Each structure stands twice: as C-alpha cells, then as structure tokens.
Amino acid sequence: MRHPILLSACLAGAVLIAGCAEKDADDTVERAFQDVNVIDESNLNDVMLTVADPNEAVSYFTRSTNEKPDRIDLQRGLAYSLVRAKRFAEAAPAWKKVTEMEGATAEDSVAYADTLIRTGAWEEAEATLDALPPTHETFNRYRLEAMLADSNEEWTKSDSFYEIATGLTTKPSGVLNNWGYSKLTRGDYKEAERLFGEAIRQDPTLFTAKNNLVLARGAQGDYTLPVIPMDQTERAQLLHTMALSAIKQGDVAVGKSLLRDAIETHPQHFEPAVRALNALEA
User: Fold this and answer.
1) Does 164 reside within a domain?
2) Are residues 189 and 262 in the same domain?
3) Domain boundary at 172, 189, 220, which?
4) 250-273 pLDDT, tens per residue?
5) To 10 degrees, the CA torsion angle through 197, 201, 204, 210?
6) What's the DSSP call for residue 86?
7) Left, alpha or beta for 195 (phi > 0: left; psi -120 to 50: alpha)?
8) How many domains are contained in the chain?
9) What Cα–Cα distance (Å) separates residue 2 from each residue in 9, 11, 15, 118?
C-alpha cells in the first residue's frame, strides 16, 4: 500500500524540481536578455550622442525620457542633443531639469550655464556658476567664467580665467581665439594678434581665428596677409576681410585693390567682394 504513495511523492517531487529548474532557466534567460538590452541601449545612447544627426538624437531621447522619466542619463542625453541641434531655447529648461534630479553633478550645472549664455541669459548663467563649489575646477567652468567676465568688462578676471582654462585642456585653440577676440574688443590689437596666431598654431583649420587675425592686423594698418596655412578659397575670403578692414580705416584705395585681389583669387564667382567693389566704384 505504501508503494503508490511513495511513487506519487516521488513524482510530485520530480515535477516540483522540474518546475523550479524551468523557472530558474527562464529567470537566467530573462536576466541575460536584460543584460544584452542594457548593453545595446548603452551603445545606442553613445551613438546618438556622438555621430547621429542631432535632431534624430533629440527624437530618440524624447521617446526614451517619456518612457523612463526618472533616468537622469536619458534626460542628460536629451539636453545635450538639443544643444547639438542648436535648439538652445529648449535645451535650457532640459538642462535645468537635469540639475534638479537625483544624481546631478556640478558639470551638469556648468552645461546648464553654457546653454543659458547661448540664450543670452547672462545673469542667470552667472548665478548658476556662482552656486558651484570653488573646488570644481574644470576647463568648461573657467571658459564660461572668462566669457562672463568679458561681458562685465572685468578684464583682469577675464585674463585670469582664460589663462587657467588654456592650461586645463589639450585643445586650447577655441579658448585662445575667444581670448584674442576679448583683447580685440579692448583695442589691444598686438596681443590679440599673438593669441589668434597661437590658436591657429594649435589648430591650423580654425578659420575663425584666421579671420580674426586679419582683423587685428587691419586694425593696426597692416594690410598684408599673415603667413599661415590657407587654401585658395580661404585666401580670397581673408583678402575680402582685409579689404573691408582697410575701408573702415579710411584706406579706400587699398580696400579696392584688396577686393580685386580677392575676386581674382577666389576659384569661383565671389559675389560679396564683387558687390563691395561695385558699390565703391559707383
């Protein structure tokens, strides 16, 4: 009589063990898929933040944040993508939201201040940076501090911040160009010329610095192009800038000559230079 009972118990145990094994297997598979999904999502987020079209990235992170609004990394991705897309009016509140979330960092506040400056909210940007601890010493913070000092015409502070920022990056061309432009607006043309030249030495492709260098030379009455790397189109554009600088200084004859050189140098029809020359000769 005991054998059927024992057999039933064994069968029940076997079913239970099989059920547990099946459940464990399901859990293992589910965890594996979750791990794969996390890896895939992480890779996709990186792609969206770097190489994807900025507006596509905005759409991706907008969907992601709607599904998972508490994920600060996704909210940060949305804010950063809006900046990449140059949608600064939308990026500012997005960064503000990031700074108010659990896990926000000081660098998030710096990014928020950067976006505020791009929207012209200088006072709010300054207040945001002032709220950061002085121990947060990064290139981005000092770059923004320098720009804020410029806007307040606090030249000593500006120079100090630019100098610190330059020492905190391995790619200082952009901040050197900004520093040079600051000197240019103050009328310190010689120092501006030096800083623009250093920016070009750090990055020979930085056309903005080349153009600013020509402006600094023109402001000193020097209407010769500097010896810097340039292709034919850039040379024509720089001659055009030099011509306009000469005309502004009252050296109209020199300006006309430079405009003719610019037109002849440009590999295609150079409409702005042609229009300026025609206006002068009319």
Assistant:
1) yes
2) no
3) 220
4) 999 999 999 999 999 999 999 999
5) 0
6) T
7) alpha
8) 3
9) 11, 14, 20, 85
Amino acid at the residue 76: R
The letter for the amino acid at 230 is M
CB atoms within 10 A of CB 22: 10
- In terms of domains, do 182 and 215 share one? yes
Q: How far is CA 167 from CA 114, 137, 147, 279, in A?
A: 20, 11, 16, 46
**Mean pLDDT on 26-45:** 53
Residue 26 is predicted with a pLDDT of 53
Burial grade of 233 (CB within 10 A; 0-12, 13-18, 19 or more):
middle
Q: Quick: pLDDT tens for 52-94.
A: 788 999 999 999 999 999 999 999 999 999 999 999 999 999 9
Domain end residue (candidates: 195, 220, 245): 220
The model carries a pTM of 0.79
* Residue 195: domain span: 154-220
Give a yes or no: residue 17 inside a domain. Answer: no
54 and 132 in a common domain: yes
Higher pLDDT, 23 or 127: 127
115 shares a domain with 70:
yes
Instruction: Answer yes or no: do 209 and 158 share one domain.
Output: yes
d(CA 46, CA 77): 9
Is residue 3 assigned to a domain?
A: no
Whether 95 and 79 have beta carbons less than 8 Å apart is answered as: yes
> If you average pLDDT over residues 180-189, what whole number do you get?
96
Pick the residue with more confidence: 3 or 153? 153
- Whether residue 260 contacts residue 274, with contact meaning beta carbons closer than 8 Å, is answered with no
Closest CA to 82 of 98, 70, 94: 94
Q: Are residues 126 and 54 in the same domain?
A: yes
Mean pLDDT to the nearest integer, 106-130 = 97
147 has pLDDT over 50: yes
